[in-house]
Structures are given as structure tokens and as C-alpha cells.
Specification:
By secondary structure, this protein is an alpha/beta fold. The chain is built from eight helices and ten strands. Bound molecules: zinc ion.
């Protein structure tokens, strides 16, 4: 299975990161996609990408809750990293792009996580919109999909995607917890729904969504170290809990967990350049 969204570089794993990753691989995880937050998270993320090539795969982007007055400076750093990554059109699957100085940089799988968050702080709402639009353009320029974080801002993000108005723009609504109407809108826009621990919560609301959509639109994620699924709710989350989420999705969609594993893996892989 592919874990499509985990902050495994987070301090929360400093004590036992290697063991945590071993547990993840033992649980059947073959790839872990890592969303970036801001310039402070890049080194830790890329260190893991280098240590586990083709397995721990980085994204590049500026998280909406990190969009402040200096966001243009942060975006300059994002853009710089993306420019260092040169995808060879002859070999789009090569993990590392060679730099002119002979060193290499792990290839980014997506622009993320980007979006809008109006839950914590609305001070920089206009900057959040601008940063999102700029990063959508970067995604199109670099032929990458986007990993969307939106909290209390689903329709605001939809409006921005429609403003971009380019059907090549695709990706994942990470940590999707919306209504069936919102799920259908995301799917209509060509996006997938990232399903995580909230699916296992009694009041999570996804029991009113998942049974009514096609499984080809969903991917699995934990958002570790946040949002641990039941029975670990409230504790530190980790990648090895993806199977708990897969089981819950299987129960809600009334299919086997094997089916969920293979379909969501195929869905995730479909976002990458064709192999
Ligand atoms: Zn995240």
C-alpha cells in the first residue's frame, strides 16, 4: 500500500524513526509520500528521501498555515528546489535528478502540501489564496499534481482551482472529511480523496460519503503524526496504522481489504508519470 501523506520527518519520530519505518514496511507499506511544510522541514524530508530512495518520496510546497507576510520568500525557496529537479523526459521514473555540480536531488512527486486553512487564523487569507494560485502554476509548469490541505475552506479552494481553469491540474484533497456533495465536487474536478484516520471516528462523517462513491477516487494516508485512527485516537499517529484505515474503508464500502489495498495503490500510482 502507498501512504500518500505522512510527516515522518517530524520531531515526534526523533526517538524511534527507524523502528517506526520498519513497522510501516512490515505492515505492507511500499511507499511513503512526504508533504513539505516550509523551509524548515526541507532538510529532514530530503534526508529521508535520500536514505530510502524510491520509498520515502518528497513533495515540495508551502503549507497554508505557514503562509505569513514573508510568503513570497518561502515560495522563492520552493521554486528554487523545483528548478533543481530536472525531469528527464526519456526516463521520467528516475528518482534522482542530476545537478550541474554533479550531486543529485530526489525527484519530487508532487507540489504539497498547499491550500487554505481558515480554522486557526484568517489573518493571511489573501496571501493564502495567492500562494495557492502561484503553486498551482508551479505544478503545471513541472508536470506535478498537487496535495491539497483545506480546512474550513473547501469551497474557497474549489473557487481557486476553477480560477486556474486547467484540466491538467489534478491531485489529492488530503485528509478529506467533507460531505458527499463536496466529495462529488472534488471528483468532478478530477481530484482524489485522501482518506485517513478520521474515517475510523464515530463522528467522522465519512460513513455518509464512502459508501456512495467509486473506490477509484480514493487514496490512503495517515497524516502522521496527527489524527491517529481508532483505537489510537489522540495518540501519536504512524504509517503502520494505514491498514486500520484500509479496513475501515473496506467495511464502509463493503469490499475486501485486499481490494481496497490494490485499488488505492493503483489510484495513487496513477498520479505519477507513467512507468
Ligand atoms: Zn499534512
Amino acid at each position: 500500500m502507498i501512504e500518500t501523506h505522512a510527516h515522518i520527518y517530524d520531531d515526534a519520530f526523533d526517538e524511534d524513526r527507524t523502528q517506526m519505518l520498519e513497522r510501516a514496511f512490515e505492515s505492507g507499506i511500499t511507499q511513503i509520500w512526504m508533504p513539505n511544510c516550509d523551509h524548515t522541514t526541507i532538510d529532514g524530508m530530503l534526508a529521508l528521501a535520500t536514505q530510502y530512495p524510491n520509498v520515502c518520496r518528497p513533495m515540495m510546497g508551502l503549507h497554508p498555515t505557514y503562509v505569513k507576510a514573508d510568503f513570497e520568500q518561502e515560495l522563492y525557496i520552493v521554486e528554487n528546489w523545483l528548478d533543481k529537479m530536472t525531469i528527464s523526459t526519456n526516463n521520467p521514473t528516475s528518482i534522482d535528478a542530476s545537478l550541474t555540480d554533479g550531486s543529485s536531488v530526489p525527484q519530487f512527486v508532487a507540489i504539497g502540501e498547499i491550500g487554505m486553512d481558515l480554522y486557526w487564523d484568517k489573518t493571511f487569507v489573501e496571501q493564502q489564496k495567492e500562494a495557492f494560485l502561484i503553486q498551482c502554476d508551479l505544478a503545471l509548469k513541472h508536470h506535478l499534481w498537487i496535495d491539497i490541505h483545506c480546512r474550513n475552506a473547501f469551497w474557497e479552494v474549489v473557487e481557486l482551482i476553477e480560477k486556474v481553469g486547467d484540466t491538467r491540474l489534478t491531485g489529492i484533497f488530503h485528509c478529506f472529511t467533507g460531505t458527499l456533495e463536496e466529495a462529488q465536487k472534488a471528483i468532478d474536478l478530477g481530484f482524489k480523496l485522501g482518506i485517513g484516520g478520521v474515517a475510523t471516528f464515530k463522528n467522522g462523517g465519512l460513513d455518509k460519503v464512502l459508501p456512495y462513491i467509486d473506490m477509484k477516487h480514493i487514496v490512503l494516508e495517515t497524516d502522521s503524526p496527527y489524527l491517529a485512527p481508532v483505537p489510537y485516537r489522540g495518540k501519536r499517529n504512524e504509517v503502520a496504522y494505514v491498514p486500520l484505515i484500509a479496513q475501515r474503508v473496506a467495511d464502509l464500502m463493503q469490499v475486501s481489504v485486499e481490494m481496497v489495498a490494490s485499488q488505492t495503490t493503483a489510484n495513487a500510482l496513477s498520479l505519477l508519470p507513467s512507468m
